[in-house]
Design a protein that fits this description.
122 residues, mainly alpha
Length: 122
Amino acid sequence: MRGFVLPVSIFGALAIICFAGKAPEPLAAEDTKEVTFAKDVQPILRTSCIGCHNANKKKANVDVSSYASIQKIVTVEKPDDSKLFKCISGVKGTKQMPPNRPLPEDKVATIKSWITAGAKEK
């Protein structure tokens, strides 16, 4: 019986040392927020894409000016199959968009998250 006291005591002491004061951290607000077209994606497209891809000027027959029009180039829940994501991420075999100034990685990640989560409008 005496031989088991020491290992259990050492284990207990190590557990206290390792886990003392380490409560699980809550998720950051951005980790739990829902990405939507109106709130997150449309502002990116307005800033970077709408000049060439709108209802009046549809370069490559692409219009990103509305939720309805963008559905033609989005494969819901499958970013890797979506023309929009392929173009903004520069997938081999597609023309990088925007051509002169690619989107920052965080913007590409936002659009990918939106598509993966179901490409919701609002």
